[in-house]
Amino acid sequence: QELFHAALGGVLLKVNWHLVYHNVSTRDQHSQPLSVIELSETTASPGLLIQEKQKSNSSIHPPREAGPKAPLPPMCSEPARVRDAFKYVNTAVSLLVFVIGILGNVALLKIISVNKSMRSGPNILIASLALGDLVHIVIDIPINTYRLIAEDWPFGLVMCKLVPFVQKTSVGITVLSLCALSVDRYRAVVSWNRIKGLGVSAWTALEIALIWVISLVLAVPEVLGFDMITMDYKGRHLRICLLHPMQSSPFMQLYKSVKDWWLFGFYFCMPLLWTAVFYTLMTRKMLRKNSEALTDHTKQRREVAKTVFCLVIVFALCWLPLYLSRLLKKTIYDHEDPNRCQLLSVFLILDYFGINMASLNSCINPIALYIVSKRFKKSFKACLCSWRLPLQAVRRDEAQSVLKSRMHDQATENPHQSLDSQDHTSST
Predict the structure, then answer these.
(1) What is the pLDDT of residues 84-131, one digit of tens each?
(2) N or C: which end of the chain has fewer CB within 10 A?
(3) What is the pLDDT of residue 373?
(4) Residue 388 pLDDT > 70, yes or no?
(5) To 10 degrees, the CA torsion angle through 7, 132, 278, 372?
(6) Residue from 417, 316, 391, 319 nearest 359 by CA
């Protein structure tokens, strides 16, 4: 049976996805089982092609099955390999993403924490997104870079489970934060400032808590499914971290079988569809107010909406290559083809290109905010020029802008709504 697994991280891969191609067969008790791991793990040892007889002390012991045994697929005519030049390019790109991602996300967190006028509902969600990206950058990217070059997994079982868990959590935070920002922009346009008696601050805190809890829960299967196996290859004991092909529980067997479609549906299609629905509703609402004069407050709301839409587009462009590569593997890969290892080499390059693009999403959000939002641009300039400055000039400008916006709200909304609700839309 040929098994293909994709596991983030997600993570992202905002991405650490582990691709595993397995061809496992068992024979009777008196013969040695033959285990063919055509591509043990693209983020661990992508150039490794194991076609050796599995020793009795190997950590993989497939269950015996009654009845006639299915014939083995033909052996690969040549192993899947990655050129050294690609490894160097991948390492350089990962280093660039690591540096820019840390600087950009730390600066973004500092801007929002230092400027009181920037601590609004949408900006707090953006800060939560930046924190998730930062965790992914610090933990996943260095390990993924090492694993492309290394032949085995030297970090132990704890890190084997932690890395995909962190990656999947980071991707979940990104996806759910974008969905929450889309709802927030729609609420701002329709002046929905209170939800069931909760103030905006309380609602935003609840949103962030739910985002992190749901993201952590959805990443738990990565901890349960990932494991280390030991293979004897040319006299060496190689440790490999992967989504184990022999899952014991029915839930994990189902998760392993539908994982690719689940990831594509929930972590890619769902946020795009969600954003499309709420932005369509928001556009219709704005068109109805087309005859009204554009106030400063309305312009600010439109700028924030444009910023959120830009983040969603960046997310789609960064993650599309990886999902496209996964779907191509599922549709055109034939495990009976003796030349399939040549195809695996192509898929391996496509997959690492997709992984790099997905990782780029973790560092590109601050850049997108700098380009789209005038306020973030001013704050970024002040922050990057001097990390010690309290950003007083920027804070004065922001405070004046927020004061004008709130005065406009108090003049246009009901008094009781203005007193117990915040205008959380004017700070981006």
Answers:
(1) 777 788 888 889 999 999 999 998 998 888 887 787 888 888 999 999
(2) N
(3) 80
(4) no
(5) -120
(6) 319
Among 198, 262, 246, 207, CA closest to 26: 246
CA distances to 36, 47, 232, 417 from 235, rounded to whole Å, are: 16, 18, 6, 74
Contacts of 31 by beta carbon, 8 Å cutoff, 6+ apart: none
At the topology level, CATH places domain 84-396 in Rhopdopsin 7-helix transmembrane proteins (1.20.1070)
d(CA 256, CA 402): 49
The structure tokens listed for 278 are 């709420």
Structure tokens at 162: 């932690």
CB count in 10 Å sphere of residue 104? 25
Contact 327, 7 (CB under 8 A): no
Give every strand in the sheet of 50-53, ordered side by side.
2-7, 18-24, 34-39, 50-53
Contact present, 128 and 173 (Cβ < 8 Å): yes
Q: Report the SS3 class of residue 31.
A: coil
Per the model's pLDDT, the better-predicted residue between 314 and 148 turns out to be 314
pLDDT value at residue 182: 87
